[in-house]
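Quick check before the chapter quiz. The format below is the same one you will see on the exam, so make sure you can read both the input and the output lines.
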Amino acid sequence: MTLVAEPEVRAESPVRLGFAPGVRDTLPRFQSRCTVVRLATLDNDVLGVPRWYTLQEAWAQPGSPAAARWGGNPVVSVGPSDDPELVLATATPVVVVGADNAASRWTRQVVDAVRATCRSVLVVDMGQRPEPSYADIATFGHDRRRGAALLALLTAS
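Here is the expected output.
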């Protein structure tokens, strides 16, 4: 008698995202063209995204509509040695993406400066323990599934 093991199929639970009050109502403004500010903490290793990757390369299926829509957005990487008083001369909405945004002084300064100088700002914290004042959207992690869920949200039509 030969036993054949069936592969165990596990249903993946849906990704849980956290939203600050009122953020869901503002999402359409960020779902078209926007400027992306990447808080380059540890060269983005904490996000699982090497510095030379775009978020679309890391999280979207190649050739997918989400990859095409997100890939057209300009990206500004900001690190600890950059001026925290970064002023973006843009009329497009700005999405700031980091992990544990409240954990270091320089990331808080960058978020505060972008919020002070830009009209429409959405701050995403992909860390494990986001601080509500520095996270309009919290993904509670930075794996590919959470990144894909975030891109789906930000590229929805």
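If your answer matched, good. Helices lie at 23-30, 55-59, 65-71, 105-117, 144-154.
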